[in-house]
Amino acid sequence: MRMEELKRGFWGYQKEGVYRCITSMEEEFSARLMEKDAALAKLEEQYQARGRELEEGLARAQEEGPG
């Protein structure tokens, strides 16, 4: 819902329209935040997996000793 879609009453915008607009905006922003949170969680998981791979590689290299 856009501000242009709000109905005006005698004293300004009608409350019901304003409430619907605010609710719509809140739902949209909540959905965006959830998407961002999911993307961040996926990235965190990838970085942790890469960190474990590097640690395992380092441990193997240390076990093999100097060349």
Provide an overview of this structure.
The mean pLDDT is 89. The relative contact order is 0.07. The chain has one helix and two strands; from the N terminus they run E-E-H. It has one helix at 15-64; strands spanning 8-9, 12-13. It is rod-shaped, with a radius of gyration of 26 Å. The chain has a two-stranded antiparallel sheet. With 67 residues, it is mainly alpha-helical.
Could you give the topology of this structure?
Layout (H helix, E strand, L loop, with lengths): L7 E2 L2 E2 L1 H50 L3
Antiparallel strand pairs: 1-2
Distance between the termini: 67 Å
Major sheet: 2 strands, antiparallel
What is the count of β-strands?
2
* C-alpha geometry: rod-shaped
The secondary structure category is: mainly alpha
> In percent, how much strand structure appears in the residues?
5-15%
List SSEs in N-to-C order.
Answer: EEH
Strand order of the largest sheet: 1-2
Mean pLDDT equals 89
**Rg, please?**
26 Å
Helical residue percent band: over 70%
- Tell me the number of helical segments per DSSP (H or I, 4 or more residues long): 1
| Unreliable stretches | none
